[in-house]
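Fold this sequence, please.
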Amino acid sequence: MRVTILSKLVLCALLSFGILGCVKQKKPEQNPAIDISTIKEIFNNPIPTPGQADPNKAVLSVNGKKITQGQVMYQANMIAAAAGQRLSREQIMQRSGQIVQRAKDTLIINALLESEVEKEGITISEDEWTAQLGKIREDLPEGSKLEDQLGKAKVEMADFRKSHESRMKIDKLVKIKVPPSAEATVEEARAFYDENPKQFVIPEHIEARLIGIPKKQADTPDAIAQNLAASEEVLKQLKAGGDFEALMEKYSQLPGKTTGGQVKVYRGSTGSEQLEEMLFGLQTNNYSEVVNAPSGFFIYRIDAKVPVATRDFDGAKETILNAMKNRRQQDAAAAYLKKLQDGAEVVDLVEPQKRAAAPAPEKPVPPAPEEK
């Protein structure tokens, strides 16, 4: 069995950016995708289980430590749930094989790292956990409570703590085994900027605000019709001069409404030429018609139309320097992980003739352009 390139989840655990380093980054909200109700749908109807479906059946062995089918599928569904923020259920199902492979890769890597944590005798103190828990609470959206989120996900606080402490231990391990990388120079950053001009082009996009009513798997035809009617009534009131903030607060069921429903839609990013033609054809302060998408009913208000632009070097310099340092840290972490894998005995117990190999080196990922 070949271990593919390091997953983003694993790299986040490897790099010492803190436990929430991977989810703390603010991503521009694009088209609405899957809300919490649809994430539950993924768990209620999990991605197909290859081979034997017995959750207690051992499917992998990592230095003699068994990984079960249940662990693989749990990890796969966690990955699918995260992917649900940008992919439809149909797209997730089409990628089910890749998701299962990533789940296996992640579990193999975690097993190797956890073994090293035990060898080093790394622990997390009560004070360290208390401080980390405080950071986790601070990073939640305004008005959200951790206990409520865990309750919805049916996760016990003890299990939540165990999972996060495991990652905190890995952070400590990496700080011990992977020293900080050297800072990139301004000359190196300038050379990268000059050699990769396309990376600093900011595509044409619109800045908008969004009111949306998601579709749910359990919705009956009557419920869908009622939500469509409600959306059309909202649009009618908006066009008649209704207060956007009040109507969004009353009708919108999107998580983003707590931050004003702000979204950016980049040309070519939606996968729907028809939607983009309609949105980019609107004038500022105008409303779209009700968009009947697979994930729900949505109304866009166009706040600004931003033409294509190129970020200058001064505006991009810090982004490049940080990205180059992070890239070096990733390379150092990948080299450490490869060393662990080269000395590991990883066996696919379903197909024992297959053996794990070290991941192929990744090509450097250039920094994405950001607006200043």
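The longest helix spans residues 313-342. Residues 204-307 form a domain with the Chitinase A; domain 3 fold (CATH 3.10.50.40).
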